[in-house]
Amino acid sequence: MALTDTVPAAVPSAHEGILRRQSLRESAARTYARSLPIVPVRARGLTIEGADGRRYLDCLSGAGTLALGHNHPVVLEAIRTVLDSGAPLHILDLATPVKDAFITELFATLPGKLAEKARIQFCGPAGTDAVEAAFKLVRTATGRDGLMAFSGAYHGMTADALAASGGARHTGVTRLPYPYDYRCPFGTGGERGAELAARWTQSLLDDDKSGVPQPAGMIVEPVQGEGGVIPAPDGWLRRMREITAARQIPLIVDEVQTGVGRTGTFWAVEHSGIVPDVLVLSKAIGGSLPLAVIVYREELDAWQPGAHAGTFRGNQLAMAAGRATLAYVRENGLARRAGELGARMLARLSGLAASYDSIGDVRGRGLMLGLELVDREADADATGARPAAPALAAAVQRACLDRGLIVELGGRHSSVVRLLPPLTITDEQADAILDRLADAIAAAIRTTPGPAGSSPTTMRGTSP
Questions:
Q1: Are strands 47-50 and 55-58 parallel, antiparallel or unpaired?
Q2: pLDDT, tens digit, for every residue of 351-372?
Q3: Strands 47-50 and 40-44
Q4: Considering all CA atoms of the chain, what is the largest pairwise distance in Å, rounded to the nearest integer?
Q5: What is the pTM of this model?
Q6: Residues 365 and 349 sit within 8 Å (Cβ to Cβ)
Q7: 223: which residues sit within 8 A by CB, 6+ positions away?
Q8: Residue 5: helix, strand or coil by DSSP?
Q9: Mean pLDDT over residues 93-112, rounded?
Q10: Which of 158, 189, 207, 378 could, after both became Cys, cross-link 128 (CB 3.0–4.6 A)?
Q11: How far apart are CA 396 and CA 54, in angstroms?
Q12: Residue 252: pLDDT above 80?
């Protein structure tokens, strides 16, 4: 089938009925279902087939979980092998051949200086559970309580993970500036903005009147995903490593979304060359199934037996699927491929931004890409940034869905259109994604009234 083909339509009332029952039965906290009113019934690779008979290109990929896309053959085979073997599916934290194979493959992919003396803790099934475990670990190891995190961060929805995220209120977590070129908190951007952010962090730690006691740890994302696809400058990450190491502060790196080849290296910390004290992993490491772990320096392993536990930390199917995924990405050079294809896609998106004033910025790393939509009719600030345009971003997302493309929104005011395609996409599929996105942006700008869009024309160099 061509990318634009449809599949045989299901009974329309079934599709509508499922959506109606979902809205009546599920909680008000549901998220993706609100902006993506589809009912997936089959999926393979990049493509989802809905109960309404439509085909969609999935650039959400389970919020970055599906490194190999939907139902990759090596993942399905790994799951079938465990099911057919009669192996137990639930084993708490007991050792099994499946678990041993997963850990061996995972350690083979880690930065060498971490892997050679590392310990691993299996957590609850979600990334937020691993974040909580990381915080508990460093608090136990240091005897300290406070934490340092960054503006714009997202680490999960459990108590401490949420407290370390950008939208937290009234917490004991010290918030630090994260380099953000387009909306630099210091009004400079670039290397100067990153340097000022680093100096601010160092000053807080070294000034005994800053009101910030030495923390138990610092947590950082190499690329802020939910925060708007903002890559941390490599030099700034190295400064964070230097600052924390000199003060015996464990550095926790959250690679829940950036890991397993997503950014162009197997782990995003490899771009900067830093070695964290704790690596938080989930999403893609389970090969589409729930799995979360922390990997950390053995010197931090001060826990007593039972200090951290979880009933569902021994998911054998997830470990099998995860081992198969890790091996496939490693053996087929998919991290390098993500870097190369992502650079080409970013270049094309930059060309699109040059044509529309409503695209304030494009950025990303590897196959983790974002476009920030802005109000082109508003005045820019001193650095050239315009106010966010969340209504336009929402219109672009709807227009993408109309064209069979699934994208997610993130960033400040949900004004960043995010692309997280599988690492297995072909050049043809990448072109199809960008074609549909470009068409959706043009349509949304054309039809969105008021300051969020612009009419009748929005090409750079023209006047409305």
A1: antiparallel
A2: 999 999 999 999 999 999 999 9
A3: antiparallel
A4: 69
A5: 0.92
A6: no
A7: 229, 230, 231, 232, 257, 258, 263, 268, 364, 365, 368
A8: coil
A9: 96
A10: 158
A11: 19
A12: yes
